[in-house]
Design brief:
The chain is α+β, with helices and mostly antiparallel strands and 169 residues long. The protein has helices at residues 14-22, 82-92, 137-150, 163-168; strands spanning 3-10, 27-39, 45-50, 55-62, 69-77, 94-107, 110-117, 121-130. It is globular, with a radius of gyration of 16 Å.
Length: 169
Amino acid sequence: MPTNIEFKVRTNQLKIQEEKLQSLQPIFIGLDHQIDTYFNTQKGRLKLRQGNIENALIHYNRSNVANAKQSDVLLYSTVEAETLKEILIQSNGVKVVVDKLRKIYFIDNVKFHFDEVKELGSFIEVEAIDRDGSISIHQLKEQCNFYIRFFNINPSDFVEVSYSDLLLK
């Protein structure tokens, strides 16, 4: 199971922060319009992501803390998701839908999201990803800490919950 150490921050300087990241010459994956449908579940979070770049059924467990935190992720890539979505709606019910425009970048194993979320505003997410058990939790935390310093993030900028939780408030 892949393990991430990740953080999310609210920002009113999305373009400035994106330009700062570009100074490190990241790989730009693209602009993805993502619709994340969250389903009711007994444990963790379950969402179906439908985008023009990323499409997956994702289950994850993550603590709601305002800082870099561990996320245990199960991801199943999908191509055609409408039937799967209907099955999940019928069996679990929809909790909430998140609509966002996301710019995606990578530097090595670290993924960057520059998000404009409908009804919520602008955010940056950073995920240090270990896909195969070759990177220690300590190394992943160090990578996140580097980018917290790089972006000059203040403790008050951290968002402890998912976009789904913010929309449900």
